[in-house]
Amino acid sequence: MTAPEIDVEKLSAEQAATELERLAAEIAEHDRRYHSDDAPTVTDAEYDALRRRNLAIEQAFPALVRADSPSRRVGGAVSEKFEKVRHAVPMLSLDNAFSDDDVRDFAERVRRYLRLPADAVLPITAEPKIDGLSLSLRYEGGRLAVAATRGDGQVGENVTANARTITDIPEILSGNPPAVLEVRGEVYLSHADFLELNRKQEAEGKPLYVNPRNTAAGSLRQLDPSITASRPLKFFAYAWGEVSTMPADTQMGMVAALADYGFRVNDLMKRFDDVDELLEHYGKIEVERGTLPYDIDGVVYKVDDIALQERLGFVSRSPRWAIAHKFPAEKAATVLNGIDIQVGRTGALTPVARLEPVTVGGVVVTNATLHNAEEIGRLGIKIGDTVIVQRAGDVIPQILGFVEEKRPADARNFTFPEVCPCHLKTPVARDTTAGGVEGVVRRCSGEFACPYQRIEHLRHFVSRRAFDIEGLGEKQIEFFFNDEDLPVKSPADIFTLAERDAASLKKLKDKEGWGSLSASNLFAAIETRRTIELDRMIYGLGIRHVGETTARTLARAYGSWQAVHDAALAVARGDTQAREDMDALDDIGDAVIDAVARYFGEDHNRDLVEKLAAQVNVVDAEMPQSDSPVAGKTVVFTGGLERMSRDEAKAMAERFGVKVSGSVSSKTDLVVAGPGAGSKLKKAAELGIEVIDENGWFELIGAG
Question: Is the pLDDT of residue 78 over 60?
Answer without folding.
Answer: no
